[in-house]
Amino acid sequence: MEPPRKAQGKPQTSTRYKEKFNTLRETYTRATATRANHEKNLQSAGVIMKRLQDEIDMLLEALMDAAAQEEIQIQMPMPVTPPPAMNGHGHGNSHSAPPPARHEDPRLSQHAVIK
């Protein structure tokens, strides 16, 4: 058996370093582009977050104003209208006849029952 021959010319190590350098350069370029993309997305997310916070603040102010108005209305209640006349069936339909009037005999109210 013959011992393995060494390649003549430039040593193999220099090409490996070039390949490694080019691979690392590509990785660096991708990482830099990814970072720039993430920073851009972060800025746009910050703008969206500020806009949403402004909207939340506006809605909270509207709720507080509505609660204050409701509190004022509770302190100064609106006049209540009386319920419609009941027809004996649990509802007051305007198209139904009114209940018959009760007339008591005046003679009955004068006599009291004594035990």
TrEMBL record:
Coiled coil location: 35-69
Origin superkingdom: Eukaryota
Record keywords: Coiled coil
Region named Disordered: 78-115
Descriptive protein name: Uncharacterized protein
Protein source organism: Armillaria ostoyae (Armillaria root rot fungus)
